[in-house]
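hey can u check if this looks right to u? its 202 residues, i copy pasted from the old doc so theres a chance i mangled smth
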Amino acid sequence: MFRSGLRRGLVVLATVVVGLLAVTVPAHAGPAVLSSMKPLAVKEVSTAELRALIARGGGQSLTLGTQAVMDVTCYLLVGTPYGGGAPDADVLVDGAVYCDDYVDVATLQVQLYRGDSLVASDSATFPYTYGVYGTVGIADCVAGSYFGAATAVVARYDLYPPVIGATKRSVDVSIGCGSPPVGIPTPPNCSENPQLCARIGD
């Protein structure tokens, strides 16, 4: 009974933490928002690989439990925004949280910013998973300086602390959108506009 109540309470806690960090994007914010959020059903990285990633830096480590007894190590990553190059090209950012053992609940939120404006955001929560991978973005390029952010909250109820969270921000990157395609000019109608079709030497 106590364990069941604890589980419910921790799920609520994890939901509240992510809710407090979430920012909604207005429906009229501009280009259509793209999103894909997927749970990791199998272990993608080993403990050794995770610790190598942590040693190299670039992400944020989260540890549930203590190494003296048992622990679960997770690694939060956010990529550099990419895409653009043409007016109709997508601008996207990837985020992920990988764990070296299963967690009872994992929530990931991925956000894309242009300057100081949030232009795309989505989050998803999955039970009994090794992590979450997500991509968000906009469907039509708008030139500017972009960065991404990822927030993860993971829970494993038989460890202490049972719930832990972190946020990671990417570097800024300038993304251009190219120029709109230039139409091929229509040849003049010489019978209607003979002055546009004068022969060379006339």
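DSSP finds two helices and nine strands in the chain.
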